[in-house]
Amino acid sequence: MQKKLIVSLGLALLAIVPLSADIKYTMHMEARVTGSANDPISQMAGGMLTQMFPAGGLDQIVTTGDRGTRSEQKQAFATVKAGTVTLVRPDGAIIVIEPETKTYWKQPVMSAELAAAMGGAKPDIKITKRGEFETINGMKAEHLTLVMTIAIPGIDASQLPPGMAPDLTMTYNVWVTDAVKASAGATSVAMTLMKQFGMDGVKELNDGRMMLKGVMSMFGVELVMTTSAMTNESVPASMFEVPADYKEVPGPIR
Q: What is the 3-state secondary structure (H, E, C) of 94-107?
């Protein structure tokens, strides 16, 4: 069950990355071990999260706008094959398309196990405007820091291994720019996904600006996300639909 939880969490992290305007770009994600995990359970979780990423990281070609978001995966990640396409609809529905087998499935943001584990766990969220700006991809970006703490349900702190906290803390450093504006559809999608993690109140991460860089820190691992090769893109509506000859199958994470 622990492995399924980590895989679900890894897929969920990909789903809640802030979205952008009607453009096409490359998102690169890479997991780096920081060695900051002090207890064996966090070290195990961090190791599993790191192992999900291919050597050199994961690249996605993203096209997004009012019709939703389309992400084409260039390398294998967790249970998802290279070449897989993920569609996120404006209502938050997620559909995963596998061209190799001509199949697709409807994917929840998180598995039943993760949803049960997080049920009733209201995260404590603190966000800091650092007053710092950097130029990324030729655009001025503001640096924000979010710290989210979630109490782990059903945990007796007295029974935990030495150094293990009874809660999960994630630090998220993000650089956002107003040089590119998010469409209404993209903003709606991001809000729907963030709401499932109790993050819908964090307006600073979904105020119409685009994320150019993000660093999530948890389990002694940094998940670094960077964008590049941004262009205005006009794509046919069929890019946001499942091909008619594809068959629906059960997803790998349920």
A: EEEEECCCCEEEEC
How far apart, in Å, are the Cα atoms of 88 and each of 59, 95, 239? Answer: 17, 7, 12
CA-based end-to-end distance of the chain: 12
Domain boundary assignment for the chain? 2-248
Element (H, E) at 65: strand 58-65
**Residue 199 DSSP SS3:** coil
Q: What is the pTM of this model?
A: 0.76
Reduce the secondary structure of 114-133 to three states and give it as a string.
Answer: HHHHHCCCCCEEEEEEEEEE
Going by C-alpha positions, the residue among 218, 184, 167 that lies closest to residue 13 is 218
DSSP label at residue 6: H
> In which band, very low, low, confident or very high, does the pLDDT at 117 lie, cut at 50, 70 and 90?
low
Architecture of the CATH domain 2-248: Clam (2.50)
Which residue carries 């702190």 as its tokens? 157
